[in-house]
Amino acid sequence: MPIPPSNTPRLGLGLAALGRPGYINLGHGEDLENKTVDAMRQHAWTVLDAAWAAGLRSFDAARSYGRAEEFLGGWLRERGHTATVGSKWGYTYVADWRTDADTHEVKSHDLDTLDRQWPETLASLGRRPDLYLIHSATLATGVLEDRRVLARLAELGAVGLRVGLSTSGPGQADTLRRALAVTLDGVNPFSAVQATWNLLEPSAGAALAEAHAAGWTVVVKEAVANGRLTGRGQIPPALARVCRELNASPDAVALAAALAQPWADVVLSGATTVEQLESNLRALELKSDFSALADLSESPGDYWQTRAEMAWN
Ligand SMILES: NC(=O)c1ccc[n+]([C@@H]2O[C@H](COP(=O)([O-])OP(=O)(O)OC[C@H]3O[C@@H](n4cnc5c(N)ncnc54)[C@H](OP(=O)(O)O)[C@@H]3O)[C@@H](O)[C@H]2O)c1
């Protein structure tokens, strides 16, 4: 995995909102005027160029983000860039480029899905990813107990990419601690995790610190809570106060709070537009201890219930 130079920003860019016309983030539908494949490819490249110009060198995609892998792979080749690329298996995109589909993605963490999606990712990206993650692993899917899947992932890990998992739901910490304890012939095949951490849902923090201490790569996703910690959301008074004190937008403060976590190797921006990205980038300049925001946290159950109710648009 290419090690970015030490002065590389720890901010990365995720393509969940750039690789397909529909997504759950607040007000997403308004951001993308023209949703044809070519228009969205051009739009994604414009945001990627802005991210590159700002020094970002970590990019995250997934098999289920529509054409995100294809857009990212094509852009890297066209620009001749070398970057750290992550992708994920386990969700299949089924929305057929529609925003009003009844179902947008289907989850399956079995060996057939892995064996189908790995070559698809290689073909779409046009290269091997540096990080390859189980998409939204939970204890309920049983994937962490599936020896055949673990053996296949260990084979992939043996050729130099970091395999691991992304977690979702109120049980992220339990899922991660189970993954930290997985062994195959005495060795843990995993060495990377991507998890939701933000001011409303910080519950996975301690487990992420354990993963970092174990030498895993730790990536933060959903740092602005799918738009709730941006100007589009209802901003809690304590956050509004810190925004005034730092003369910064809520998204920048929320991302800075994630960047302040010593165990976070990369924090993903999920910006859908160049304007949003420029606002997010301000996080790199903000220095504070953010302790005044510790009381913003919701119960994980409430947080994930609210997220589950967010409409695809
Ligand atoms: N299970 C998984 O593995 C998983 C799950 C989720 C995300 N991820 C990864 O993490 C990345 C980021 O997560 P995310 O996009 O889901 O959540 P997020 O980063 O919490 O939310 C990003 C969204 O917030 C809104 N936003 C950001 N900056 C804004 C600003 N300045 N003003 C107004 N709105 C702003 C945009 O929503 P609009 O689109 O509405 O404008 C943007 O798409 C994804 O791209 C993906 O790579 C992985």
Characterization of the model:
The protein is an alpha/beta fold. The protein has one domain: NADP-dependent oxidoreductase domain (TIM Barrel), CATH 3.20.20.100. 36% of the residues lie in helices and 15% in strands. The chain contains eleven helices and ten strands. The protein has helices spanning 28-31, 37-53, 68-79, 111-125, 147-157, 172-180, 205-213, 237-246, 250-259, 274-281, 300-308, and strands at residues 11-14, 58-60, 84-89, 91-93, 105-107, 131-137, 162-167, 190-196, 217-221, 266-269. The strands form two sheets. The protein has an eight-stranded parallel β-barrel with strand order 1-2-3-6-7-8-9-10, surrounded by six helices. It is globular and about 55 Å long. 48% of the residues are buried. The protein binds NADP nicotinamide-adenine-dinucleotide phosphate (NAP). Residues 14-17, 25-28, 31, 60, 88, 135-136, 166, 168, 194, 221-227, 230-232, 251, 268, 270-272, 276, 279-280 line the site of NADP nicotinamide-adenine-dinucleotide phosphate.
In percent terms, what proportion of residues is strand? Answer: 15-25%
Q: Please count the helical segments.
A: 11
The H-level CATH homologous superfamily, spelled out, is NADP-dependent oxidoreductase domain
**What is Rg?**
18 Å
Distance between the termini: 35 Å
Tell how many strands the DSSP assignment holds.
10
Envelope shape? globular
CATH architecture: Alpha-Beta Barrel
Mean pLDDT value: 94
The CATH topology label is TIM Barrel
Please give the share of residues in helix. 25-40%
For the record, the count of structural domains works out to 1
Order of helices and strands: EHHEHEEEHEHEHEHEHHEHH
